[in-house]
Amino acid sequence: MKKNLKKSDTFSFVVDVGNTHTVLGIFKGDKVVDHWRLTTRKETTSDEVMNRIGGLVRFSDIKPSDITHVGLSTVVPVLERPWIKALQTLLKRPVQVVSSKNCLDCPIAYPNPATLGADRLCNVIAMRDLGYKDAIVVDMGTATTFDVMKDGGFAGGVIIPGISASLDVLTEKAARLLPVSIEWPDHVIANNTDDAIRAGLLYGFLAQLDFLIGKIKKEMGRKDMPVYATGGWGRTIARRTSLIDKYDPFLTLRGIRLVAVNGTATTAYGEESRDSEEE
User: What torsion, rounded to 10 degrees, do the Cα atoms 12, 103, 158, 36 define?
Assistant: First the structure.
């Protein structure tokens, strides 16, 4: 964290609300200077959200008054309202909420663009800002999504269960299989049940990754398409395969920042429609 920050610097506070975790970041320009990872609570109020993020911000070198832009992406619709209200109250800034209508004119090849997850849209926006026109982003979270970028827009993709979610389902449905820590076993052929589960989850995921990336590149007619990884499991997987060209843990946040700074659909501080007790 840099000290003696100038008032003229642009600071963006961005939030990515996922199904399992919520990631928050502060950018100075286009550089991440602080970030946190929280458990997503699907039943929460704006006051509870404000209390959680307020405590984090107090330990940051960046003061709320330094923040110039605020951005929010959420795949949990019920949490949009409390997060907007909390951010507006704490930071005294309007909030840019990422959506198909507030995506910096990023083309979306969906018949109903509103059904596209905001986080997936952010990944493509970030890749476009990095100079890519065609690329694949593998976002490894609760679900693993393959976001396909063509001519600078969102062309479509694939959704499969994430690694942790797969383990949860397996141990829930199979009475004799118990939860295990997810770490790489030494061999694919395991000599105990725990390692057999680990091998299936991790090496099985690599097999899915290999097949799906290959099929996407074939359908796109581009064997040289760059592949980025992000998300909670991205680092673990990227270290074990040459299929991933680069891992960026902040790729989604970068997309949110771009919308925070350049978006056109702000939610104004103090807007009464956001004060409903429905949250």
Answer: 10
Edge-to-edge order in the sheet of strand 135-140: 153-161, 143-150, 135-140, 227-230, 246-247
Identity at 55, one-letter amino acid code? G
Report whether 94 contacts 227 (CB < 8 A): no
Give me the catalytic one of 66, 119, 139, 147: 119
Task: Record the tokens describing residue 155, joined without a space.
Answer: 């062309």
Please say whether the beta carbons of 277 and 80 come within 8 A: no
Are 265 and 104 contacting, i.e. CB atoms less than 8 angstroms apart?
no
Closest CA to 97 of 110, 108, 82: 82
Please state, in angstroms and rounded to a whole number, the distance separating the CA atoms of residues 258 and 72: 11
Burial class (CB in 10 A: 0-12, 13-18, 19+), 276: exposed
Is the dihedral angle over the CA atoms 230, 233, 236, 239 positive or is it negative?
Answer: negative
E runs forming strands in the chain: 11-17, 21-28, 31-39, 69-74, 95-97, 135-140, 143-150, 153-161, 227-230, 246-247, 266-267
The CB density around residue 196, as the number of other CB atoms within 10 Å, is 16
pLDDT per residue as tens digits for the range 62-110: 999 999 999 999 999 999 999 999 999 999 999 999 999 999 999 999 9
pTM of the model: 0.91
Residue 151 appears among annotated catalytic residues: no
